[in-house]
Amino acid sequence: EMTGGILQGSGKLEILTSAIWTGGDINEGDTLLIAPFATLEIDGSQKDLNSTTLINNGLVNWNGDGRISLKNHAAIINNGNFYLNGDALLDYVIPDSGGSFINNDSLIKSGSGTSTIDAEFYQSGVIHVQSGKLRFERGNGIAIGGNLHIEPNAIAEFDERTFEIDSLHVSGGGIMNIRDAIFRLINNGLIIDNDGHAVFERNDFQLE
């Protein structure tokens, strides 16, 4: 269990069974790797991921209302299951060149409250909003595709930036809410299934 201090180094740290991150910063590392069938539990308030790539090939449970600040091109690459279970904030720290979240498998929002991804977001896997709200603020540099499934009474919200959309399938009984954002549709664009529901909240939204 990591409860405070700083973890840093130039090599690879691999979690083979389970670990808990409740405090402290991960700085100037190369790679933090979560092996298949391994689990990382994240709790607590403020933490930094700085100049490090976190690769999840297993399971991440982010619980509670904490913040992870991405600095100096830090990245989270999800190749497994990544759960956001509360009012979590993944924060792009602008003066420190921020970072990104790349979802290649399953990103799941569960529990109440709003989980916010304020990081460059790249998506080719599945986003499943089971409950509460999952909010995207930073936008992306490449197209968001894959599947977005929103359960009834849940919300997926896009705000503040430009999002390039290519072959994104929206389904479920919940709401996809596009607020003060630009949706740039390319190639196959946005596909809303029969049970999908998209809302353009502002009168001055842009759809390109």
Overview of the structural elements:
There is one protein chain. By secondary structure, the chain is mainly beta. Helix content is about 0%, strand content about 60%. It is built from no helices and 26 strands. The strands form two sheets. The chain has a 20-stranded parallel β-sheet that branches. The mean pLDDT is about 85.
How would the blueprint of this fold be written?
Layout: E1 2-8, E2 12-15, E3 18-27, E4 31-34, E5 39-42, E6 46-50, E7 53-56, E8 59-62, E9 67-71, E10 74-78, E11 81-84, E12 89-92, E13 99-103, E14 106-109, E15 114-118, E16 120-123, E17 126-129, E18 133-136, E19 144-150, E20 155-158, E21 162-171, E22 175-178, E23 182-185, E24 190-192, E25 198-200, E26 206-207
